[in-house]
Amino acid sequence: MPRRYSYITRFRCPKCKKAGTAKWEENDRIALPHGTQIAALTSLTHGFRTGPQNDIFCDRCAAQVVSGHG
């Protein structure tokens, strides 16, 4: 079984400047045709929420922080 990689990204809300982190992990059940693994969001700093397509939004001001990562 191939190793699943995980990584952490840091981000800051562009509107209110609140900082956070997101942990991403490769999903071995979802792969692109050329073999690249899709990363799934597995954890997120309190005060942020996810939307469709792995978008991350700030709960404080509702600004979109990260778009379509993974």
Percentage of residues in DSSP E strands: over 45%
Number of folding domains? Answer: 1
The structural class is: mainly beta
Question: What is the count of DSSP helices, taking H or I runs of 4+ residues?
Answer: 0
H/E topology pattern = EEEEEE
The biggest sheet amounts to: 3 strands, antiparallel
Q: Count the strands? A: 6
From the N-terminal CA to the C-terminal CA, the straight-line distance is 21 Å
Principal-axes geometry comes out as elongated
Kindly report the average pLDDT value: 81
The percent of residues in helical segments reads under 10%
Radius of gyration from the alpha-carbon trace, in angstroms? 13 Å
Question: Which features does this protein show?
Answer:
mainly beta; 0% helix; three-stranded antiparallel β-sheet; 70 residues
Short description:
With 70 residues, the chain is mostly beta strands. The chain is 0% helix and 53% strand.
Description of the structure:
- Helices cover 0% and strands 53% of the residues.
- The protein has 70 residues and is an all-beta fold.
- The protein has one domain (6-66).
- The strands form two sheets. It has a three-stranded antiparallel sheet with strand order 1-2-3, with no helix packed on it. Strands 4-5-6 form a three-stranded antiparallel sheet, with no helix packed on it.
- A hairpin with a 5-residue loop joins strand 4 and strand 5.
- The mean pLDDT is 81.
Secondary-structure blueprint:
Blueprint: E1 6-12, E2 19-31, E3 37-44, E4 48-50, E5 56-58, E6 64-66
